[in-house]
Amino acid sequence: MIGNVKQRYSMEERKEFRKLILEKLRKAKKNLSIFKKSFSNNKSNGTDDTYPTFKAFEEGSETLSKEQNAKIVAHLQKFINSLNAALIRVENKDYGICRITKKLIPKERLMAVPHTTLSIEGKRLMEKNK
User: Fold this and answer.
1) Are residues 65 and 55 in the same domain?
2) Exposure on the CB side of residue 112, measured as CA atoms within 13 A
3) Reported pTM
4) 104 three-class SS
5) Do residue 79 and residue 23 come from a single domain?
6) Structural domain tally of the chain?
7) Are 104 and 96 in contact (CB under 8 A)?
8) Which of 5, 7, 43, 78 to pair with 59, CA 20 to 30 A apart?
9) For the residues of 3-68, what is the DSSP string, one character each?
10) Euclidean distance between CA atoms 24 and 39, whole angstroms
11) Cα–Cα distance measured from residue 83 to residue 79, given in angstroms and rounded to the nearest whole number
12) Residue 24 lies in a domain
């Protein structure tokens, strides 16, 4: 510590963050698996013998649903990558340090967004400089 300012989280705190990240990772991977299964499910909905206009509407809806699933899958994959990167930072003992301000990110923020690399102050500075 420099002048009573905490520089890193303790090993116990990092263990707590690691547990939280692993739980979020488990849930995200489970959700990704579910979405990938539904995304790759190309079964017919039994509309082969229905009125062609209805079929066109259903196909349009199916396309939209597949596009939405693809976006969700991409988002979940990005989230999983961010969580994996956070685990590496926990192991490297530099977890919770803002990449802009180099100050410790408040524990409350990390508990809410455990994969973040920015404090609120750092995020504001970054947005201001865009």
Assistant:
1) yes
2) 8
3) 0.76
4) strand
5) yes
6) 2
7) yes
8) 78
9) TTB--S--HHHHHHHHHHHHHHHHHHHHHHHHHHHHHH-----S-TTS-HHHHHHHHHHHHHHHHH
10) 22
11) 6
12) yes
**106-130 pLDDT, tens per residue?**
999 999 999 999 999 999 999 998 8
Clarify whether residues 16 and 77 are in a common domain.
yes
Return the amino acid letter for 102. Answer: K
Spatial CB neighbours of 84, under 8 Å, sequence gap ≥ 6: 25
Cα–Cα distance for residue pair 112/109, rounded to 1 Å:
5
* Residue 5 within a domain: no
| Size of the chain in residues | 130
Residue 17, domain member (yes or no): yes
Query: Tens digit of pLDDT for each residue in 50-109?
Result: 455 555 445 555 666 778 878 888 999 999 999 999 999 999 999 999 999 999 999 999
Evaluate whether 112 touches 90 at the Cβ level (below 8 Å): no
Show the tokens assigned to 117.
Answer: 């690399």
Take residue 33 and report the two structure tokens written for it: 């698996």
Q: In this structure, are 34 and 49 located in the same domain? A: yes
Domain residues for the domain of 118 are 96-130
